[in-house]
Amino acid sequence: MQDHGSLVAVLNSTWFASGLEPAVQTRLAELSRTFSAEPGQELFREGDESEVFGVVIKGRVALRTRVPERGDFTILTVEPGDVYGWSAVVPPYRATSSAVAIEKLEAITFEGPALRAALREDAALAQALYPRILVAVARRLTATRVQLMDLFAAEEVHSW
Fold first, then answer.
1. Which pick of 20, 22, 27, 103 has the fewest CB atoms within 10 Å?
2. Which letter, b or e, does each residue of 76-105 get, where b requires 16 or more Cβ atoms within 10 Å of its Cβ?
């Protein structure tokens, strides 16, 4: 899966990169690498500098946040084809959640600093990716809101 043609084909199979101009897909493949993680492996921790943006190819990733007096709480499970680590391209480049592989993970990843530099230098790449990154952020906000409503609704039911 390391050659550019294979990476382009894999990227094109995801909602995130599907339908991008061939030149943009090729540029993404040039910036990417494959990554794998075992179940339970932490990918990043909430509040840390965000260094990697990834697209899940196989497996799943739990995005978790720390809830006072409750510990870590899964706010979203990232499925194949979706992205994680968007904070690597959005200032201040700090992880807004922790991420843990919950199944054997295969992903295509992009180093944050290199991707940010490419986005600054290549207007076509930025124009193609930023709207998709915003879609990912909006999906996270919606999912997080639903999870938090469930969390606090359950708390109110159990409050005597």
1. 22
2. bebebebbbbbbbbbeeeebbbbbbbbbeb
